[in-house]
Amino acid sequence: MMGRTTLALALATGLLAAPALAADDWKPPRTAWGHPDLQGLWTNTTLTPFERPVEMGDKAFLTEEEVARAETARQNMIQSRAEQPAQKAEAGQNVGAYNQHWLELGTKIVGSRRTSLVVDPPTGRVPVRPAAQQVRADNLVKMFDSYEYMSVWDRCITRGVPGHLFPAGYNNNYRIAQTPEYVAIYSEMINDVRFIPVDGRERIPEDLHLWNGDSRGHWEGNTLVVETKNFSDKGWIATSGSQGRIKGIPVSTELVTVERFTRVDEHTVDWTVTIDDPVNYTDTWTVNIPLYFDPDNEMFEYACHEGNWAVYNTLSGARHLEETGEDSSP
Questions:
Q1: 190-222 pLDDT tens trace
Q2: What confidence tens digit (pLDDT) does each residue in 303-319 have?
Q3: What phi and psi values does residue 21 have, to the nearest 5 degrees?
Q4: How far, in Å, are 27, 91, 196 from residue 86 at the CA level?
């Protein structure tokens, strides 16, 4: 496993950067002011799991045959769900959640054929501290007790940094826009817009902590490097079930993330993030996810705002079940 110092050196020298795999003669487009152009509508929907499944052991890459089988199985599953007839629900019956129409399940393994989006440590598993796992477990058990235990995503506050760029079951679309002073990333999920200064301005005071931290970017050749710190300790590192056991792991004020955005070809931005939070993890860990250009896609309003009726109705429904003696646990 790479330690914090070793990993920092690796990132600085590009040892972890997938852009090295890009064609040597391809040159990314430039903005009118000379910065590499990352602008456009992108998606990161993928079939590749966030962490490597335990049963895969040390297997870091799939074969082409395994990729074909996995992708075919996913397509068949989606088709089967889509063809299921609607079922009438009796009064008082649980109507379930979204059907296949509303989901955007990934159908493709990432081009590297990796068995996980977590690329370091080599196990493909996040080195979570037991204490952080316990906080997560407590939050999930108590999530219907109070809004304080619910996901900040469910509360329509934010998916966080770097969580807003982790794939979910739907709304995995991002629009990137640039000016000489900023790079802006508009996430479809929750209508989050993240502004990253790239003009060398000073950071905010160290004692000021924000939901999404304080980001500062700079260009290293064709790569946008973004360091984010000054996080609040109220958020979660991941809010989607697509991140499995990492959903609900807390964020501490010591969290620092380093992201690298590199346009490796006309249709791909390679995104890598290294997460350093000694309060919640025993070491740093790194995720690598490609963003694919999707100009024919559309982004619709995600009508979600803090204080909406969903949280109120969820909690009041749980109180009603308790009053009637029914089980209100998640």
A1: 888 999 999 999 999 999 999 999 999 999 999
A2: 888 888 888 888 998 99
A3: -80, -10
A4: 50, 16, 45
Residues 213 and 230 sit within 8 Å (Cβ to Cβ): yes
Judge whether 114 and 60 are in contact, CB under 8 Å.
yes
SS3 296: coil
pTM (2 d.p.): 0.88
Judged against a pLDDT cut of 60, whether residue 83 lies above it is answered with yes
